Amino acid sequence: MAPPRPSRKRKESVGSVESDYGLEGAVLDGVLSDSGDESGAESEVGSAGFDDPNVDDEEHSSDADSVSDAGDLSDKPNYKVVKDADGNERYEYAEIDPVYDSDDSDAREQTNTIGNIPLSFYDSYPHIGYDINGRKVMRPATGEALDALLDSIELPKGWTGLTDPETGKPLNLSQDELELLRRIQMGEAPEDGYDPYPEMVPYFTGIEEKMPLSAAPEPKRRFLPSKHEAKRIAKLVRAIKEGKIQPYKSPEEREKEEEEVEETYYDIWANEEPQERHIMHVPAPKLAPPGYDMSYNPPPEYLPTDEERKGWEQTDPEEREKEYLPAQYDALRKVPGYGNFVKERFERCLDLYLAPRVRKNRLNIDPNSLLPKLPRPDELKPFPTHCRTVFHGREGRVRTVAFSPYGNWVASGGDDGTVGVWDPNGNLAWSARLSTEEPVNVIRWRPNKDTFILAAAAGEELFFVIPPLCDIKTLEASREILDAGFGYAANGAHATTAVNGFKQDRPAKWGRPGSKLEASGVLLKATVRAPIKMLSWHRRGDFLCTVSPTGQKSSVAIHTLSKHLSQIPFRRLPGLPQAAHFHPTRPFFFVATQRLIRCYDLQRQELVKSLQPGARWISGFDVHPGGDNLIVGSYDRRLLWHDMDLSSRPYKTMRFHSEAIRAVKYHRSLPLFADASDDGTVQVFHGRVVSDLMESATIVPVKMLKGHKVVSKLGVMDVDWHPSHPWCLSAGADGTCRLWA
Amino acid sequence: MDIDPPAQVKVIFTTKEPDLLLPESKQQLLVPADVKRYGLSRILNSESMLNTSAPIPLDFIANGTFLSTSISEHLAAEGLSHETTITLEYARSLVPPVYEASFEHDDWVSAVDVLSPSAPVAAGADADERVASASYDGLVRVWDRSGNLVAVSPPSVASQYRKRLDTMKWLSPKQLVSAGLEERITVWDYDKTDDGSVGSLKPRLELWGHDKRIHSLAVNASTGRMLSSSEDGRLGLWSWSKQKAPPADPECFAFTHFSKKGQIAAPKSAQRGPLAMVKLNDDSPISAATFHHKDPTVAYWTSGDGTVRTIDLTTAKEVSRLATQHQFSCLAALPNSLVAAAGRLDNIVLLDPRESTATTTAMTLKGHVNWVSSLCPSPENDYSLVSGSWDSTCRVWDLRRVDSDPSTGSGRRAIKPAYTIKRQWLEGKKLPEAGDGAKVLSVVWDKTWGIVSGGEDKKVQVNRGRNLLS
């Protein structure tokens, strides 16, 4: 549309050109100053009239420039008329020089006119579009890859890494453009210096308008004093009078005044009485946390079966194990209220209130310090430690063992009714069957070293044996000892009955055991009234005592070997006698009943002492070679040491066995003693007796000898010591004897 | 140097045994580096080297240790190159006391003794190789090397229980002596047929003088003297020739025969008494006596009270006394004038009976786990002995192998056993508790026979005894 209009204008102007030619000079100046448009048109018309088509473009423009610089109107047109393709005229204007005042300052150089299509469409062409004049906008030369790399290293100012879609050049942004972008991003006004919130100027102000909005007179209340204010002031005055409101004082002044006021203190602890250090607060014991069975939906194994439920319902509420029955509900909201809640709380409170809670003082004592200080067992050597020999070859239990007076032979007797004599290396040197039915309960060697006599008790019979292992002289001496009483017995027994006048049986019958036994060395037999369980020799070897617990009146008998005489010292004994021993040095005689041990003086025939070991059933005892101490073993697993000088109560009680103690024995020369128990062990103790009265005996357990098997709840039946060495012999219910050293 | 794959090493052979010494020129040799002990032994036994008639197994000591690997491995272990010259010391190799034979008896074997050309009783003369054993059934048996019973003594005249024999010794190739529970000592004549396969034992003499059981006998064949120690606390010195021995005290045996009431037949053999009786003690449950190993006039005697006494036999007086804490039941006089004593304790104690020494106990031999019943010094050297114990083992001791025992302090020295000989039927089993059923009661070590032991298992066991210790 642009080309036709100028053309019409030009036609009009062409028509008026000739008329206006006359008015050249001053008239035109005034016209121009009034309206610029007309003058422009005039000048254009003028210049168009004198247009030379042959004149060069550039000359024209330079001329035009010079004309415009001069400031006066030139009649040169700023266009050329060319013929277009249709043959019509076409005005071709010169390029506008965009000077400062130019309207065309927005016009850009070489603007791509391809519109809003992607630049990639031109990828295959050397140009990237067309400018306003239809000329191709050539693609800027893209540098080599190395150049691009160098560019990327030395970033030019305002580099963005983007490509301008219009020009295809790298899009660089200047600092101002970046600032503009930042502002837009921050949501600020893009232009600098724009204040979006200017201060508001209100319409109605304290400024007195010349024309007031209302013409009403001043109201009366503005002249009358306020009653409300008077009330308030009266209130304040009252407060000031009462001193509630103080006149203002600066802080320094106030401090000064406060310092002047004297400080007053009160001793609230003046009448305090001393109290216990701690408040004895004992926290209440916590209730156990609820278990699974208290859940509203417990696992099925916690739910009671019908029987349990029935049982629970039938039992008395106080005897119930639980005060509730676990029950299952689908949901928590279906759980009914718990009826016993108040009762339970009440009982809990009652418990806490009634049950006294006491803080217990813990003893802070090292338990080791309470143990008595005993010497180490290593310092107390020698004592038996190892099994040296096992003596086999017996059927049934071995009930009794004994070392010969020299300690070079070992005798044993057992359930098979035989007596055997062994070499210490385990070789059975001699044996004889004393009885086919009765076990050999006890054997003891005559303690004299010049004879070789063994006393063995089987059932009611007491045998005196000379094992044919000794030398001839000893054998002869032993035979003489045994045979000496034969002549005496015949006379003496007669005499005693005559003197005493008793018509009862003699306590024992003495005689030969029969030729078969005599051939094997059993030379003498004495038959008493009841089975003998225990026998003991007097140290001189002339007397021996036998104990037969079932014998009632004749349960304890003292036999005189040289006279073949048996006597019953006690007409009546309180309780069943268990064991009896002679005092090793003095004419005393010890008898143990089940509970008590009595000591009798044989010469004066009176009771000297009565000991109370405190055991329920004494199994055996032994007298220390010194004569002042006793060890007692009991079936209730206790081993008791009595010091007869101290008291009738035991000096020491030892409970180291798990089963009954069968036998106890002192060593005859060394400070050792041992006990045999049904738990299959022999325990060896060191027990030193000191002659000093102020010092008491030291008793140290030193060794537990294990080896015997427990057969039908019987372990070790008897124990004996070597006369001089720390060797120990034990008889086991497993049919073996063992030598320990 | 040879560069063939079997590299060779230059070796210098040395030895401390003079009979095996190589000539100077042959002591250096190039041997293959991969050769081991056996190869080295064969090299040395070869004709060019020692030229032994029978190969002697040898052990080699390199740098103080026995060579158990090849030479090259040894060099590698030592970090030496193959070009170094190594010095190998060789010695006769040791063979453990291998079991050889055992002879079955009817009852416990209480004593064994050997007769062989190398035994001291043979006195250098030619003698058969025989083992005599005394048993608890009262019989003395003589066996030959292949286990044949050559001779048995006639049944004892003593009663059933007193016939037990406790000790027995060869007196000469033709005579034996035995003693036991009875008070007498019996000297037996051992006669053999010409081929030696069958012999007979006849009582020759009865020696009376002790009152009680006799524990041990000691024989000095060179002087024809015999020692006996008895339970009566006396030491008897005897001669076993009918001419030299004095007549017996008639009281001794007359009393016996009278008291026996015809149980014993009239004695067929002659009776003799002791040359001397030394009363040393009142009674001793166990006792032992032995001669000084060189001086036949000196005897050692021990008893149950723990003393070891030195007795001069010419004057029949006690010369010195060593008191110990233990009860000894056997003694052995060692060539280095020490006395080995053992008995009712686990250890064997080496005592120095000389008065000059400060400490009585020279060494302690630890290893047995039960009481030791018998001791015998080695016939080959003067630093080893064998012991038999109730723990069912015999142990061979090398007195040179002294371990410093930290537990006993600096003064005491303890030795551990070199070999332990178990009873053959217990081989591979655990030792029985307390030696139950297999106690060794007697052991003898002879050059020809080896180690002969008898005991509770009713067997006499023979073990190889040569070259046990280097």
What topology does this entry show?
The complex is a heterodimer of chains A (741) and B (470).
Chain A (H helix, E strand, L loop, with lengths): L3 H17 L6 H8 L1 H14 L7 H14 L8 E5 L5 E5 L33 E4 L5 E3 L6 H9 L5 E5 L6 E3 L2 H12 L40 H16 L8 H10 L45 H9 L26 H14 L12 H4 L16 E5 L6 E6 L6 E5 L3 E5 L5 E6 L6 E6 L8 E5 L2 E5 L6 H12 L1 H16 L8 E3 L3 H5 L2 E6 L6 E4 L5 E5 L8 E5 L4 E3 L9 E6 L5 E6 L3 E5 L4 E6 L6 E6 L5 E6 L4 E5 L8 E3 L6 E6 L5 E6 L3 E8 L9 E9 L9 E6 L6 E5 L4 E4 L1
Antiparallel strand pairs in A: 1-2, 3-4, 5-6, 7-35, 8-9, 9-10, 10-11, 12-13, 13-14, 14-16, 15-16, 17-18, 18-19, 19-20, 21-22, 22-23, 23-24, 25-26, 26-27, 27-28, 29-30, 30-31, 31-32, 33-34, 34-35
Helix pairs in contact in A: 1-3, 2-3
Chain B lengths: L7 E8 L12 E5 L4 H9 L12 E5 L2 E2 L4 H8 L7 E7 L6 E6 L4 E7 L14 E6 L4 E5 L4 E4 L12 E8 L2 E6 L4 E8 L6 E9 L6 E7 L4 E6 L3 E6 L10 H11 L9 E3 L3 E4 L7 E5 L6 E6 L3 E6 L4 E7 L4 E6 L5 E5 L4 E4 L9 E5 L6 E6 L6 E6 L3 E11 L10 E9 L17 E7 L3 E6 L3 E5 L7
Parallel strand pairs in B: 1-5, 14-18, 27-31
Antiparallel strand pairs in B: 1-2, 3-4, 3-5, 6-34, 7-8, 8-9, 9-10, 11-12, 12-13, 13-14, 15-16, 16-17, 17-19, 20-21, 21-22, 22-23, 24-25, 25-26, 26-27, 28-29, 29-30, 30-31, 32-33, 33-34
Summarize the structure.
By secondary structure, chain A is of the alpha+beta class.
Give the low-confidence spans of chain B.
257-266
CATH C-level class of the domain at 378-489 and 506-740 in chain A is Mainly Beta
Gross morphology of chain B is elongated
CATH top level of the largest domain in chain B is: Mainly Beta
Number of DSSP helical runs of chain A: 14
Relative strand content of chain A: 15-25%
What's the main sheet of chain B like? Answer: 8 strands, mixed
